[in-house]
Amino acid sequence: MIEMKNANFKIEKSKWEAFKKISKLKHSDSSKELRKLIDKYLEDNKELLNKLF
Q: Checking phi first, is residue 10 left (phi over 0); if not, alpha (psi -120 to 50) or beta?
């Protein structure tokens, strides 16, 4: 099982509400969509990530 970590950050309320609404329209939720964004970010920066580990 993959260990999960809660992450807290600040974002403008209107942006967060819009993000949640769009996620729901896509039959998803904000947590799933944020994980997808982070996965893509890590993939796009794989070379830098490899230097760290």
A: beta
Domain that holds residue 42: 27-53
Which two structure tokens, joined as six digits, stand for 8? 């807290």
Q: Is the residue at 44 inside a domain?
A: yes
pLDDT of residue 53: 80
Whether residue 33 is predicted with pLDDT greater than 90 in this model: the reply is yes
Instruction: Report how far residue 41's alpha carbon sits from residue 12's, in angstroms, rounded to the nearest whole number.
Output: 21
- pTM equals 0.82
Task: Tell me if 16 is assigned to some domain.
Answer: no
Mean pLDDT of the chain: 96
- Beta-carbon neighbour count of residue 15 at 10 Å? 9
Taking residue 24's Cβ as centre, other Cβ atoms within 10 Å add up to 12
